[in-house]
Amino acid sequence: MVIFPEKFDGLYARLDRPHSEIAPWSIWISYSPDLRFWGESQLIIRPEPYHWDEMKIGPGAPPIKTDQGWLSIYHGVFKTMDGSVYRLGVALHDLENPAKIIGVGDSWILQPEDPWEITGYVHNVVFTCGAVPEFDGTVKIYWGDADSVMCVGEANLSDLIEAVPASGQTSKIIPCPWNNRPLRRNPFIRSNESMRSGSWRNSHRGVETLLQGLNFE
To answer: Nearest CA to 6 among 136, 93, 91, 105?
Structure first.
């Protein structure tokens, strides 16, 4: 569950993933006047059949406000004979009405590739719960790997937004630049740094930026 850092018509807004037979493993939005009682729930994004996120999806980091809309980084799951694979994707919400989806990226932005992402307590998992926008137009994305370690990477916000198609269009697929091998990690996220337990290096400036971005008035 994640909460938007601004209110809409005086209400808090959250994204979560309740599981039901009506819409299995989908992303919903709900509203609350006090963060205690939630209602006006709406289904806004479903898993896409025959897609990298066809098994289930769920919110990841709190949405980031941009000129084009609220950028949401979510996780998607694909079932294989060797278990599930967790990847990250992006979507854009309307600035005034976050229940309105401008578009959802057709391709993932990050998938398990490094050894600590492929092997661990739960293998083949990248799962984000935090993203800190910086003043230079980049965003630091924090994610857990195989439920065992933490990593941080940096991406350009403009690249992530460009990966989301406008309504009725398809997203731009950026080719993999690494020796023409099959596309595994889109070149959005760079500077991958593993942060194992006990060696977490916090970015104080990034945390201050995130806190300054909260505006619930």
So the answer is: 93
